[in-house]
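FIELD: query
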Amino acid sequence: MLPESQYFFDALATGRTSLDEMWQVISNVMTLPTGGQRETLMAVLDELRENGLVEFPKSDKLWNKSALPQLPTWVNKLQLKKQVKDVAKVIWSPELAFLAEQVIRQDSPWVEVDAWLKKCRGKKLELKPIRERSLDIFGDEKALDRVVGLTPFKLGQINLGTLGCFYVPEPIPWKPGPPGSRSFCGLCVENATTFDTLCRFNSEAGYWSFVAYGRGNQFVSMTDGLASVVREYGHDRVQYFGDADFEGIEIAARGAKRLLESGILLELDHRLYNLLVKFGHVVPSKTGGEVSEDAASLLAQAELSSLSDMFMHYQRIAQEWAGLETLKIAFNAAQLPPVVVISRYSPPPSASL
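FIELD: result
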C-alpha cells in the first residue's frame, strides 16, 4: 500500500467518516494536486477498499455525483477484528495474472470476477453493455461500474473487452443544424432554456452543425455522449456556451478536461459570451474568486480573460440574456461567420431530442 494511503487510513477514525471529514483528513496528510483532488482521494479510497480496510456505501444514492470521479458520501473504517481475511493461495485466471503477487481479501470483487472468468472458460462470450455483464458477474447491475474505477483498470492491466462488455454513454439531447451547416463546429449549451432558444435560432441561421444540451452542472457526466455526437460529424472539437459566471466557466473547464481524454477540444464560443457582455445585465453572484488554471486557459483561448475580473468581484451574467431576438440582432448585424471544422468523415447524422 502506498505511504499516502497508509497515512490517510491511520488518520481515519474507526466507523463511518463523511465525505466532508475525508477531505479534511486527506488535506492534513498530503498535498492535493490542483484540479486533481477528487481523483487523488478516490485513488486512495480504492486502494483501502481493495485491501479490505474500508467499506463503501452499496446504494447508488449514497455517492456524490457533482463531478467525476463519483465519491462515496461516507466510508466505514473496519475494526481490526472485523477486517476481512486474505484469500487463500489461488491460481488466478490468466486475465487476472496481475493479482498473483498481491494480497487480496475474501470480499474483493476480483474474487467474483475470477470465478466468472473460470466459469466462462472456453465459451464464446456475447458482447454486452457493462450493466448487463455486471449482473452476470455480481448479480448487481452497478457493481462493475465501481470495479472499472480500480487501479488495474486505470493501469490498463484489464479492460472491458476482457469481460466481453462495453460502456454505454449517457445519451445527450441534441438537434442537427439545417442543410449546409455540417462542416461548422457544433455547440453544447449549459441550460435547458437557452438550449431550446439556440436550437430554434440555429434551425434557420445554421451557425452550428448541431446544438446539444449539457445538463448544467452534470456536464462532465454527459461528455461521453457529446463525444459520440462530435465523432458522428467527423469533428475533433466543439464549442460551449453557458452562464458567464465563476461556476459556469468551471463546469466548462471540467468538461473540457474530460473531452480531451477522447481527443476532442472544447472551446468557449466567444461570440455568444461577448453577446452577454454587450446585451446582458451584470448581477451579484453566489460564487466567485480566482478561476482554476484550466478555466483561465479556456478564457484566454477564447479571448475572454476580461471576464475573470467580473468573477473576482462575485458577479455574473445569465446565459438567458441570449434570447432569440437578441441572437438575431447580434449575429445578423455583425454578420458573424460560422466556425468551420474540417471533417474526417461524413456519415449521415441521426439526432435525438
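FIELD: remark
The CA atoms of residues 68 and 352 lie 25 Å apart.
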